Amino acid sequence: MGMEPEAQRRKTFTGNVEHEARCDAGARSPLRIRPLQCMEIVGGSERVDAAFSAPGVDVFLRSRPHGGEHSGGDVHYVSLCGRGCVSRLLVADVSGHGEEVAAIAHRLRRLMRKTIGTPDQRKLARALNREFNSARGEGRIVTAIIATYFAPTDQLILCNAGHPPPLWWSAQTERWSLLRADAHEVQSQGVGPRNLPFGVIEPTEYVQFAVRLTPDDLVVVFTDGVTEARLPEGGRLGQEGLLRLVERVDPRAPERFLDALEEQLDQLGAHPPEDDDATLLLLHHNAADPPEQTLLDRIRVTARMLGLGG
């Protein structure tokens, strides 16, 4: 997939301005898109409907635990490194629900912090697998998508641990597709089991692959609470059914995308499982360049890395 020359990239990220997403007349109030600060991690296992921006990407996140609970078994994190170049997304589906998952969410956050500035996320995946294998007595199996956006090259690097593959809208080809490792060049080392859910087998090799995004590309990450939605005629929505639904949504309005997708689900009569959570994360590639850091910015980032700042 081609890449536009650097001179054609549209803007530079401004990390200190909170703004509202555009919203069509008659739609619900727009989300306020909050810029992430360097060395910041946001997320957890709680119910959320929020939007964030980082150099090159906007992230729209919606997670709804089953039964109207405050927290559930879907865990979601978004982070930004100290230089504003590495943005990381993690969406995980943990076996279990409710407050019992809070400790697991804390472990995920701690491990994300350790690798916050590293584009290669295989180390994080292996650490997560070791963590959950060591706690095997808890009976936890975790599927996850780890995605890292590297702003200097517009690359999105993905590692899939037994999770449903994300959906990718290519603004260049104007087509949706599944983001699978078998369709892209894979970075791998060694042999043995690959990309199993965390907590199944130790050691497991985790491979990653990269795609180069062009301006206005979209990536949709979801948990199986979405694809296992029941249909009126019986059966489940499935990945192919979700793919058909996103094809009906206008990709040129990312700020309205999740609302429009849920409207499509409602019109189809698809009902989420009563015993599962549902999470949708939309990444919009705005192609903004990372800002140049001043000396004061670098001092603040260093302080945060040392735990001396907020």
Structure description:
The protein is an alpha+beta fold. 21% of the residues lie in helices and 29% in strands. The protein has one domain (46-305): PPM-type phosphatase domain (Phosphatase 2c, domain 1, 4-Layer Sandwich), CATH 3.60.40. The protein is built from six helices and 15 strands. It has an eight-stranded mixed β-sheet with strand order 1-2-4-5-15-14-10-11. Strands 3-6-7-8-9-13-12 form a seven-stranded antiparallel β-sheet, with helices on one face. Helix 1 runs antiparallel to helix 2 (122-134). The longest helix is centred in the last third of the chain and has 15 residues, at 254-268.
CATH topology: Phosphatase 2c, domain 1
For the sheet with most strands, the description reads: 8 strands, mixed
Strand percentage:
25-35%
Radius of gyration based on Cα positions = 19 Å
* Number of β-strand runs: 15
As a percent range, the share of helical residues equals 10-25%
CATH superfamily: PPM-type phosphatase domain
Q: Which class in CATH terms? A: Alpha Beta
**How many angstroms does the end-to-end distance come to?**
40 Å
Instruction: Identify the overall geometry.
Output: globular
Domain tally: 1
Helix-strand pattern: EEEEEEEHHEEEEEEEHHHEH
In terms of quaternary structure, the protein is: single chain
- Mean pLDDT score, rounded? 85
CATH architecture: 4-Layer Sandwich
**Secondary-structure content class:** alpha+beta
Low-pLDDT residue intervals, each spanning 5 or more residues: 1-9, 22-26, 305-310
